[in-house]
Hints:
The chain is about 65% helix and about 5% strand. By secondary structure, the chain is mainly α. It has one domain: DNA Binding (I), subunit A. The chain has a two-stranded antiparallel sheet with strand order 1-2.
Amino acid sequence: xxxxxxxxxATEWLKPFRATLYQMDPLLREEKKAGSRAKYWxxxxxxxxxxxxxxxxxxxxxxLHQTRRNRRIAVAADGTLTPDVIAAxxxxxxxxxxxxxxxxxADKVTDHMIPLSRGGEHSVRNLVICCRLCNGRKASLSYExxxxxxxxxxxxxxxxxxxxxxxxxLEAIA
Length: 174
């Protein structure tokens, strides 16, 4: 009983310091991220159905989104990325760039490491071939935010990929 009271008191007392603790304590941070990953996987199918239903009931918004995306591609393109180049990249790629899982041809999608919506370029340097799950999870997150959410065993590979492509450490992203 006393332990339960102490634990409740400690929880209440620490509430104002949670953000600071999260920043300073890597174990707490990793525990929270693991909880977020577990929650994501538990709700994945429900989230997919909800998104598909929304797109089906709001086709005008889906069209508007695609128009904006096409405009961003036109502005951010450097000419190195053509449909033939993308097809060749997809044909050569066997494993997801982020989670390293084997992919069937239908599962291969393109992802901009730095999203177009965040000023990324539409170029070979900024494009990776990944699985649908990773692409959906990353969405429009910045690369730093995405690295924080990747399973720990795959982080080093994703960081190395960025550093190889951009010839600078990941911390240099502003």
